[in-house]
Amino acid sequence: MAINILDKIKGHPHLVEGTAYSILFAIGLCHLLNDMVQSVVPAVYPLLKDKFGFTFAQIGIITFVYQMTSSIFQPFVGQYADRHPQPYFMTLGMGFMILGLLMLAYASDFPLILLAVAVIGCGSSVFHPEASRVAQLASGGKKSLAQSIFQVGGNGGSSAGPLLAAMLVIPYGQHAIGWFVVAALIATVLLARIGSWYSLLLSEVRTSHRKIVSGVSNLPEKTVSMAMGILILMIFSKYFFNACMTSYFTFYLIEKFDVSIQTSQVCLFAYLAAFAIGTLAGGFLGDRYGRKYVILFSILGAAPFTLIMPYLNLTWTIVTSVITGLIIASAFSAIVVYATDLKPDKVGMVSGIFFGLMFGLGGIGSAFFGWLADLTSIEFIFKVSTWLPLMGIIALFLPDIRPARS
Asked: Which of 59, 120, 249, 301 has the smallest set of CB atoms within 10 Å of its CB?
């Protein structure tokens, strides 16, 4: 017999009826700490390159190993957790992070550095699928909002990591990477508390010999497969564009407008800050108006602003980049929740697939645009990337799945 999670926790003295905001903010903070630690890896590339004399090809191999281990294993971890929920899997993932950080802080050659970033990547693969499931279980039905809170934490961590690396690691050297273990230890303590909440939830459900469900999809399998394919194309469009912005927007501003490095970094921060705000806003809108329409608006709605951006002066380029960040960021939470609504019995696997795609496509997109920039120019790849949001028009073909009203 299946039971909706909201019905089961109602009235229980240790579980919150409705949206468990304390759990949501805790898992969001853990996501911030996790992604902050992750973002240290690419931030220390210049240090590692200078210290060990690595070529750009070797840096590329490090990135490939790191991106693959942090993305390719996520669906498999999620699929296993769907069948055998593991409340403390997230704590195990953070343990991998701690081990990987210590290895990277003291690695003395290229193979050891590859092993260290692979361990860090595996920690990310273990963390994300179950953490995303916890966010949905704590949502109280506000699944888009819950996913947005979770995702904003990750965005904040990705932004803070390079800044902290610049302050702590670059001045003091490779061993200072180990200081980030403190952040991972804080996350471990929080995840142990969250795991206790999750374990209590599972024990209550098991005691009643019932099964947690998040809803039921009555769509034909062919329709579900088509919708999943569209969502994957949306992820491709969003994260290839975002890869160009995050990796090359500063170079574009420097080359076209002759701004300083510091000014270009401030402009990039403005885009990233807007991206974080847009992620949270997308959660509210998805629960209220339906995830399909948020996905459509988020990707296709950004197109008019991206398409005119290469032809504007500096001020309006920054303004349109901020507007673009606000709009396009709202898509990811809606996409993940929409996908889990399509396959409500496979929340972990689906979350793993889409988080894996987010990491993988971001890395591939950055490498692709870097290769293309070497062949052409920074201004050319920027113009090419601004056409990607037009792919959002295919979201019109998504079936209309409206959020349940409470």
From this structure: 59
Cβ neighbours for 255, distance < 8 A, ≥ 6 positions apart: 377, 378, 379
Q: Is the pLDDT score of 247 beyond 80?
A: no
φ and ψ of 183, to 5 deg: -60, -40
- Let me know: does 179 contact 59? Beta carbons within 8 Å: no
Q: What is the pTM of this model?
A: 0.69
Please report the DSSP string for 282-301 in residue order: HHHHHHHH-HHHHHHHHHHT
pLDDT tens-place string over residues 52-85: 888 766 777 787 788 778 877 778 877 787 777 7
128 neighbors 360 (Cβ within 8 angstroms): no
Of the ranges 6-10, 102-106, 289-293, 368-372, which is most confident? 102-106
What contacts 319, CB < 8 A, 6 or more positions away? none
φ/ψ (deg, to 5) at 246: -70, -30
Mean pLDDT score of the chain, rounded to an integer? 81
Q: Other CB atoms closer than 10 Å to residue 56's CB: what's the count? A: 10
DSSP string across 112-154: HHHHHHHHHHHHHHHHHHHHHHHHHHTSTT-HHHHHHHHHHHH
Strand-pairing partners, residue 3, are 212
Separation CA 298–CA 333 (nearest Å): 11
